[in-house]
Design goal:
Elements: E1 6-11, E2 17-23, E3 26-31, E4 37-38, H1 43-53
């Protein structure tokens, strides 16, 4: 999976970016601040929820 295949991005309250990457059937959601990530479930929903709660600053 390439970081160039971005499906959606959300900004946290601290300014970090939560991104959903993906191509075909391989998707991943990752926070650029606290480095939390997931591979399962509704990734856009997880990313949005994480962005609203995470206070991490960008790295």
């Amino acid at each position: 999976m390439s970081k160039h295949d971005i499906a959606v991005r959300y900004r946290t309250a601290g300014g970090a970016i939560v991104t959903v990457y993906g191509r075909h059937f391989e998707y991943r959601a990752e926070c650029g601040g606290c480095r939390e990530w997931t591979l399962s479930g509704d990734l856009k929903r997880w990313a949005h929820r994480h962005a609203t709660r995470c206070l991490a600053l960008p790295r």
